[in-house]
Amino acid sequence: MADPYPAYARLRDRGAVHRVSTPFGGDAYLITRYAEARAALNDPRLSKHPKNAPAFLREAGLITGDAGPLGVNMLSSDPPDHTRLRRVIGGAFTARRVLALRPRIQRIADDLLAALPEDEEADLIEGFAFPLPITVISEMLGVPVSDRDRFRTWSRALITTSSAPELRRRREAGAAALTGYLSGLVAERRKHMDMELASEAQPDLISALILAADRQGELDEAELLGMLMLLLVAGHETTVNLIGNGTLALLRAPEVLGALVADPGLVPAAVEELLRYDGPVERATLRTAVEDVDVDGVTVPAGSLVVVALACADRDPARFDRPDELDLARRDNQHLAFGYGLHFCLGAPLARLEGTIAFTSLLGRFPGIRLARPPEQLRWCEQSAMMILRGLEALPVILRADPPAPAGAAGRPRTGPTA
Ligand code: HEM
After folding, report:
1. How far apart are CA 131 and CA 141, in angstroms?
2. CA 248, 22, 76: angle at the middle one, nearest 5?
3. pLDDT (mean) for 394-415
4. What's one Pfam family the UniProt record gives for this protein (predicted)?
5. Tens of pLDDT along 26-43?
């Protein structure tokens, strides 16, 4: 878990697709090379709808009725439902709408950093990487931020895809608790919303979605709850890892960190490179072939589960020069960290903005940040074999406002154009 990349490199060298066993009593096809990964993410023959998934996933409790662990939502649907669900909410996540949130996100980041202790050990996940995105998405949705520790527990349980009985029980309890909580909020909001008076400009996304469901008939009740659940979970479980994995990568490459401290204008490029280098989503969500699909000469038979290893594809030397190097000057950095095609991350503009503000503010305030423990002692989130996210449990750091010692001659940053 601390470093899956050598194992991925061996698989990728051997082939673009591999038949692998899963802990759920069935096999899957794992796609490891960039070109094939990108094609698979955009292939309409690979369905996202749980109804097409192999029966063993249902038996393992990962699918109930027509829904996956996050209910009925766009990430578990195909066109035309996917198109409709994405359209209902898409307007709230455009680059322009998201940019208007900049001052508020900056304020949240500044307040969190101001509350962290200086010159002593602090957990950057607990104090910064987790509360920043969960506060932002909670405010966007209109969910009380004071409940964030409760969502975290439920959402952690919910994204666990293990079939082990205890984890399955916890996942089901997490899903039930989160659904119950969100339906309570929706019911409460409905009581106070006057549909007649409701205007186009809604105060938050829960109200906008209730309006889309009740007045415009664009969503049914299961879709309304599934949308809220997806946005709440996808809106924070991922960005926490961008900040956590990204900060760790920078702390392990002091010359790159020094270059960013010296020139914060490099942060947006650094965010892209950190997404490629050690992205928050190690493997994309499950897909099922609805007909035979040829992947680099291997037939993936209809009915098979397909898993795209984004983290592996993003280190493919056929696509990226020196892929294991963190290079701020990398050109044409079309990584797959946000997926590709129809299900390309809806929240990408928000995640990019949050990442840019997070790294700029953190390094601006604490340019002398360093790891409080050796990297080998860091704990990564417990994963089952099919779990898709990759992130740290905790990131103990010492926050220092003094600038770091200048990098030695051997540590010159790569900030010039890539050869
Ligand atoms: C750095 C942070 C993030 C990363 C790396 C990330 C990554 C991804 C990836 C890889 C997918 C596609 C999965 C697949 O095709 O199997 C995806 C989809 C999605 N993401 Fe993100 N995400 C991030 C942040 C966010 C945020 C902040 C939101 C905000 C609400 C969000 C909402 C969504 C939604 C709604 C989808 C489903 C899109 C669809 O099915 O059309 N994500 N994300």
Report:
1. 15
2. 80
3. 69
4. p450
5. 999 999 999 999 999 999
What is the average pLDDT across 256-280? 97
Query: β-pairing, 305-308 with 298-300?
Result: unpaired
Q: Which residues of 345-374 are buried (b: 16+ CB within 10 A; e: fewer)?
A: bbbbbbbbbbbbbbbbbbbbbbbbbebbee
Closest CA to 84 of 96, 92, 94, 73: 73
Ligand 1 site, residue 140, Cβ cutoff 6 A: no
For the residues 81-110, what does the mean pLDDT come to? 95
Which residue shows structure tokens 């740290």?
392
Determine which residue's CA is closest to atom 32 belonging to ligand 1.
Answer: 347
The CA radius of gyration of the chain, in Å to the nearest whole number, is: 21
377 class by beta-carbon count within 10 Å (0-12 exposed, 13-18 middle, 19+ buried): exposed
- Weakest mean pLDDT among 86-100, 166-180, 321-335: 166-180
Ligand 1, atom 12: closest residue by C-alpha = 339
For the chain, the straight-line distance linking the first and the last C-alpha, in angstroms and rounded, comes to: 32
Residue at 131: amino acid letter: P
- Spell out the domains of the chain, with CATH numbers in brackets: 5-411 (1.10.630.10)
The answer to whether 47 and 76 are in contact (CB under 8 A) is: no
User: Does residue 388's CB lie within 6 angstroms of at least one atom of ligand 1?
Assistant: no
pLDDT of residue 90: 92
What residue type is 37 in one-letter code? A
Q: Is the CB of 345 under 6 A from ligand 1?
A: yes
Pairing of strands 27-31, 305-308: parallel
Q: How far apart are CA 157 and CA 164, in angstroms?
A: 13
Ligand 1 atom with least separation from CA of 75:
40
Q: How far is the CA of 400 from the centre of ligand 1 (A)?
A: 33
